Amino acid sequence: MTDKIVRDDAALQEIGEVGASRRDALRLFGAGSVAGALLASAGFSPALAQELNAASKPLKAAFSNAGLQATWCAQGKQAAEAWGKLMNVEITWFDGELAATKQRAAIDNMASQPWDFVAIQSFGIGTLTDPVNRMIEAGIPVVAMDTLIAPPGTIDITTFIAPDNVMMGAVATEALMKSIGGKGNVVMTQGALGHSGAQGRAKGFQQVVANYPDVKVLNEEPADWDVTKVARIWDSVLTQNPEIAGAFFHNDDMALAAFNVIKSKQREGIKLAGVDAMPPAVNAVIDGVMVTTVRNPSCRIHGWSVAAGVAAVAAGGKAQAGIPVSILADGPVVTAETAEGQLWLQKQFLM
Questions:
Q1: What CA–CA distance (Å, rounded) separates 188 from 43?
Q2: If DSSP codes are grouped into helix, strand and coil, which group holds residue 112?
Q3: How many CB atoms lie within 10 A of CB 84?
Q4: pLDDT tens, 152-177?
Q5: How far apart are the C-alpha atoms of 113 and 103, rounded to whole Å?
Q6: Helix 227-240 and helix 252-264: axis angle, to 10°?
Q7: How far apart are CA 8 and CA 46, in angstroms?
Q8: Which residues have C-beta within 8 Å of that of residue 183, sequence separation ≥ 6?
Q9: Which residues pair with 271 in a beta bridge?
Q10: I want to staple 79 with a disulfide (CB 3.0 to 4.6 A). Which of 34, 143, 236, 299 is the partner?
Q11: Cβ distance 24 to 13 under 8 Å?
Q12: Which range among 17-31, 234-248, 297-311 shows the weakest confidence by mean pLDDT?
């Protein structure tokens, strides 16, 4: 015990000699420990973070996700930037703006510049193939986040980091079915139809609903992750259908937007389930506004993308890095009992 205290005090004193306070030094130790834990959890060597932070010149990375209007995407940006600071990576963001054409313009711009690596969540499959191929041909490692950039095997990306979207759709829908007693009219409000994540969530929903013959699906319109579109869809759905038992949403932003319309029309009592487990939805589960949400771990997906890009660069390219072609990044179903822990993990950019 005495030896350990002496070693720690010596290290703190050394840091103090370069102008850091004891508290600052502890922060530095904490940041290093977190960096190691983050990397280890993603399967990367914790020593890599120390090597990168020792380098005088930061890596330059470009990131894009579907649109920062979506809270999941906004949180992902924060997580990527936090991981970037730990790993000495400067990140430039190209917002997809929840539109395939706008994201394509942003990625065309991205492809015109040099980067050490890039990470992209595409708004739709196949919409970004040409500029992504240009970057790959230029030797830039490309990480796909959450949804496919192009059909599997058609572009030479470094890795694809994503959750099991079919599973997420299925578990959320199963919880919804139980909450409505396995019968009644239900609605599924989808994300963007060209988004592989939305496709998986729809498949999970359909697989579960097929087991409930007394459930009727009234509407499956896509809202493209856009809460304004959700409001229009749900105003119409509620007007046309006097009886709705429950609804499944491809993300929580849409679920909570629909709840506002439901409440305004005094149709409370409709059970809601979603995906992403963003803090507002986790609190909605605690408050009983939503039945459940399942965590699509934005922090893992965006953070691990930083780590994968760094690993590819550090190894001298994709082939040398030995990174698997796909990495599963799953999160749990959130209940009132597990909600507080999930909120804490998100604040640390760990889930």
A1: 36
A2: coil
A3: 21
A4: 989 999 999 999 999 999 999 999 99
A5: 16
A6: 40
A7: 20
A8: 212, 214, 215, 245
A9: 246
A10: 299
A11: no
A12: 17-31
